[in-house]
Design goal:
By secondary structure, this protein is an all-alpha fold. The chain has one domain. It is 49% helix and 2% strand. The chain is built from eleven helices and two strands, in the order ααβααααααβααα. A two-stranded parallel ribbon has the order 1-2. Helix 6 packs antiparallel against helix 8.
């Protein structure tokens, strides 16, 4: 008897994706191959990764010139961060192999999708209505309003992309930090939200209902990835505005 509601929820989720702007970016046609999830349950994320990996050029509507090269991963500042990530996380043998032949076009596309999966999460947690000129005002606000974990896109991006590259993830921390591997796996919790009535119309939601476990994972990720850093936040906000998402 439970199969019918689940099927309906699955269909609703697919229709929601089709009607939203998610998927416009990136257009990686081989995401299933490029993502190649790894067994890592804990990740050490270089704190400068999402700040140093800058977005490539896009037009006034947020369309990238090459949507399989969303980030400037060939720039030394970004490439060094990906290499540092690989050094810190030997459990991610996929990224290690891709880096070993960085000049291979397929590997570069795969690494671009990896950086997108991780760093675009910052963008999808920008509150609707935000503008890059509001940074100082939102930073001073109590509580701060730079990010919103309950904007529907925030957990949805984690479902579609973070959970592709890190399907077993429990915790993310900075180099030298303590990995809390006793925490629940994030992706099953995020998936529960995605296939629940709470996610309906997630692309337009400002206040979706997420569990404490999902909130803790997303909040911790936003902190470790330094999503609230001025340069990262303004870059993300400008992109989200251009794409008519916020």
């Amino acid at each position: 008897m439970n199969s019918v509601p689940l099927a309906l929820l699955t269909l609703a989720a697919v229709l929601s994706l089709a009607s939203s702007k998610s998927g416009k970016n990136p257009c990686h046609p081989n995401r299933r191959v490029e993502s190649l999830g790894v067994p890592c349950e804990g990740i050490y994320l270089p704190p400068g990764m999402c700040d140093n990996c800058e977005l490539s050029a896009y037009d006034s509507r947020g369309n990238f010139n090459d949507c399989q090269a969303i980030y400037k991963i060939g720039e030394p500042a970004c490439r060094s961060q990906i290499e540092r990530y690989s050094e810190l996380n030997p459990c991610d043998t996929v990224r290690k192999k891709q880096l070993e032949d960085f000049d291979d076009p397929d590997n570069r596309k795969a690494l671009d999708y990896f950086v997108y999966s991780v760093c675009e999460e910052c963008c999808d947690c920008i509150p609707r209505g935000a503008r890059s000129s509001q940074y100082e005002e939102r930073k001073r606000a109590r509580p701060r309003t730079l990010t919103s974990l309950v904007r529907g896109n925030c957990p949805a991006h984690a479902h579609y992309d973070i959970c592709r590259v890190w399907p077993e993830i429990r915790h993310v921390t900075r180099p030298g930090g303590t990995l809390r591997l006793g925490r629940p796996k994030a992706c099953p919790k995020i998936r529960e939200w995605f296939f629940s009535p709470a996610s309906k119309g997630w692309a337009g939601q400002d206040n979706t209902d997420i569990s404490r476990d999902v909130r803790n994972f997303l909040g911790n990720f936003n902190s470790v990835a330094r999503c609230r850093r001025k340069s990262t936040w303004q870059r993300c906000t400008d992109l989200e505005v251009a794409q008519r998402r916020i």
